[in-house]
């Protein structure tokens, strides 16, 4: 008998639990060579010196939040998985690490920049549409937003520590339309950037 494939909707609902269980292995296997540096350079160049950054889906803080902090930026990291936040606090005890889900995020403050690297794309398409206003709502005037998404609209299955994990993306035109409606202009979108380990990166700024 052929085993029936699990619906992607069910897999999407287990993302946080997967990261809770795989946190230690994820941190050990997560590349820290900072292939992301060129995009972090561009993002940081849009922020004032010593500016504030919200890292949504910060994981253990390595390497993204840690790199931004080394640039003199004030980073607040949030992640829905308590195990990730615990590791972040252990590795970087001086940081501002909070357990929070970006889908319900309401910190009551605004930042010069918001980044969601390798995290936002774990949300379903509907969740992404609902979460973008929340992320935009945490931006100051002229604030910058950087996301990793997919090269086109669709849903795929990835892996974290050997466990399956959900990924989704809207189309580039959909992202542009939603962000425009929120008062953000897309500065650049590079699908499957060969200079960034194949990541599809979207960079926008509040107009």
UniProtKB/TrEMBL annotation:
<dbReference type="GO" id="GO:0032259">
    <property type="term" value="P:methylation"/>
</dbReference>
<keyword id="KW-0808">Transferase</keyword>
<dbReference type="Pfam" id="PF13649">
    <property type="entry name" value="Methyltransf_25"/>
</dbReference>
<dbReference type="InterPro" id="IPR029063">
    <property type="entry name" value="SAM-dependent_MTases_sf"/>
</dbReference>
<dbReference type="InterPro" id="IPR041698">
    <property type="entry name" value="Methyltransf_25"/>
</dbReference>
<keyword id="KW-0489">Methyltransferase</keyword>
<dbReference type="GO" id="GO:0008168">
    <property type="term" value="F:methyltransferase activity"/>
</dbReference>
<protein>
    <submittedName>
        <fullName>Methyltransferase</fullName>
    </submittedName>
</protein>
<feature type="domain" description="Methyltransferase">
    <location>
        <begin position="53"/>
        <end position="143"/>
    </location>
</feature>
């Amino acid at each position: 008998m052929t085993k029936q494939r699990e619906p992607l909707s069910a897999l999407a609902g287990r993302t946080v639990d997967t990261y809770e269980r795989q946190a230690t292995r994820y941190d050990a296997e997560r590349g820290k060579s900072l292939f992301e540096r060129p995009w972090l350079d561009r993002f940081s160049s849009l922020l004032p010196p010593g500016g504030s950054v919200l890292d949504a889906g910060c994981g253990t803080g390595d390497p993204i939040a840690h790199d931004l902090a080394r640039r003199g930026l004030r980073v607040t990291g949030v992640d829905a998985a308590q195990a990730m936040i615990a590791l972040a606090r252990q590795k970087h005890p001086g940081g501002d690490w909070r357990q929070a889900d970006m889908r319900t995020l309401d910190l009551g403050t605004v930042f010069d920049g918001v980044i969601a690297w390798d995290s936002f794309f774990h949300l379903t398409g509907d969740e992404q549409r609902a979460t973008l206003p929340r992320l935009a709502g945490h931006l100051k005037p002229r604030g910058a937003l950087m996301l990793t998404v997919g090269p086109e609209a669709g849903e795929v299955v990835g892996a974290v520590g050997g466990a399956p994990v959900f990924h989704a993306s809207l189309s580039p035109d959909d992202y542009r339309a939603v962000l425009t409606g929120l008062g953000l202009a897309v500065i650049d979108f590079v699908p499957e950037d060969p200079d960034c380990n194949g990541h599809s990166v979207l960079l926008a700024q509040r107009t």
